[in-house]
Design brief:
With 138 residues, the chain is an all-alpha fold. The chain has one domain. Helix content is 84%, strand content 0%.
């Protein structure tokens, strides 16, 4: 039951990243019409990352929901990558901007906690045994 909760959480998390990508894409369209090229490039990078992580997390979460080993492995690979991207954004904002917002720190903390819980729970031998094995390569 708790394993499937990670899957449900992942679908919600991925949907949040996709929604953020859609919102930033709308802002990006507005910025493009104003002619500021620098902001266009930086915002387009955020849109790309949001869509990439959103779709990837949703796919991994569906794999976890279906108790597929590829979903578990993908989830355990994506979550630390997501943490590193968020920590990189915080470091960039602290170095070159005026810092990150309190909301961003809370969001990053939630991602870090979810990653720690995932790594602790989904790597246990009893839980790994519940996932369907991958098909052998032929």
């Amino acid at each position: 039951m708790l394993v499937r909760l990670f899957g449900v959480f992942g679908v919600i998390l991925g949907a949040a990243y996709l929604l953020e990508g859609v919102i930033i894409a709308g802002i990006l369209n507005f910025v493009r019409t104003r002619g500021t090229q620098e902001m266009f490039v930086s915002k387009s990078l955020f849109v790309t990352w949001d869509f990439l992580f959103g779709i990837s997390v949703i796919v991994a979460a569906i794999g976890v929901l279906l108790l597929r080993n590829w979903g578990r492995i993908m989830w355990l690979g994506l979550m630390p990558a997501l943490v590193f991207v968020h920590l990189g954004i915080i470091a960039y904002n602290q170095t070159f901007r005026y810092g990150s917002t309190q909301d961003y720190y809370i969001w990053t903390s939630m991602v870090v906690i979810a990653t720690a819980l995932s790594c602790w729970y989904l790597t246990r031998a009893g839980i790994r045994a519940r996932f369907a094995p991958q098909a052998p390569n032929n």
